[in-house]
Amino acid sequence: MRTVLVTGARGMLGTEVVEALTGTAEVVAADLKEFDVTDRDAVDYAVRRIAPDVIVNCAAYTDVDGAEAERELAFSVNADAAGNLARAALAAEALLVHVSTDYVFDGSKDGAYLEDDEPCPANVYGESKLAGERFIRSAGGRHLIVRTAWLYGHAGRNFVETILSLAEKEQRLRIVDDQIGAPTNARDLAVMLKELVPTGATGILNATNSGSCSWYEFGREILRAAGLESVAAEPVGTDTFPRPARRPTNSVLSLERLCSLLGWVPRHWTDAVSEYIGER
Ligand SMILES: NC(=O)c1ccc[n+]([C@@H]2O[C@H](COP(=O)([O-])OP(=O)(O)OC[C@H]3O[C@@H](n4cnc5c(N)ncnc54)[C@H](OP(=O)(O)O)[C@@H]3O)[C@@H](O)[C@H]2O)c1
Is 125 one of the annotated active-site residues of the chain? Predict the structure, then answer.
């Protein structure tokens, strides 16, 4: 890895990816200010000029509920732009590492999702991310599509910050208990991406922290780690908070392929959350 182009570099994950890669390669950090990934000519020009060995695409439209009303924009950023990057990567003979999501599944599986399970998104965001995966695969270049879930990090709005800010105002929080997933620290994922590139892995790969929980259990762990046990948490059903986008009930992704490629097991989500809260 000599030169790496990171798109979406000022987002929650992109910030950590830039940080993790700095010192191991020449890192070119790009976000909307540098070029718009939906602009095919701008992408071609930037990739030709930078001539990266690897492109890590962290740029995305991530407003899951917003996507229901902004379908065109979600598809433009999550699907068309992924295709733009894939074609430019092919021309530059670069590896495209693209970040995707558990939301390509509807969550109805009993057990952890494998990479080759048939996707079936339950909302527009998931449909747009799946279309992005398909554009990348059909472009024919070298690619690694990394599906992750329940991300939180210091550079973005996320569930940990929401719980901590609610806990400042309320003594009793109602938290959804019937959706399960694997909370994933953006910094941990960035390190996984960095270590995956030299393995030569391609195709689709799941990557999250280890273990799984419901949002309610995640919330309780956040309160515990922050020393806020005095704030009560009440488990409630998804239907308590109607949202525009349907959420998968089960978002757990199998880490078998990831662990065998890395040669190590990502740390448990509770350890990663404790560290994150300790750093705030
Ligand atoms: N967050 C999660 O829980 C989660 C879960 C599973 C998978 N993922 C995936 O993980 C990846 C990273 O997510 P994240 O939470 O770090 O996202 P994020 O914080 O929303 O960052 C996305 C970045 O992309 C930029 N961007 C948006 N449109 C662009 C465009 N047209 N051209 C160039 N840059 C553009 C955004 O800029 P602006 O801020 O200026 O718009 C932002 O800096 C995404 O692929 C997402 O689908 C996220």
Answer: yes
Find the catalytic residue in 103, 113, 125, 216.
Answer: 125
- The domain spans of the chain are 3-157+183-209+253-260
Rounded Cα gap, residues 248 and 104, in angstroms = 9
Architecture, CATH, for domain 3-157+183-209+253-260: 3-Layer(aba) Sandwich (3.40)
Model's pTM, two decimal places? Answer: 0.98
Read off the pLDDT of residues 178-236 as tens digits, 9 standing for 90 and up. 999 999 999 999 999 999 999 999 999 999 999 999 999 999 999 999 999 999 999 99
Best probe residue, ligand 1, of 15, 31, 204 (max atoms within 8 Å of C-beta): 31
Nearest-angstrom CA–CA distance, 272 and 278: 10
Q: How far is the CA of 69 from the centre of ligand 1 (A)?
A: 18
Among 126, 147, 89, CA closest to 246: 126
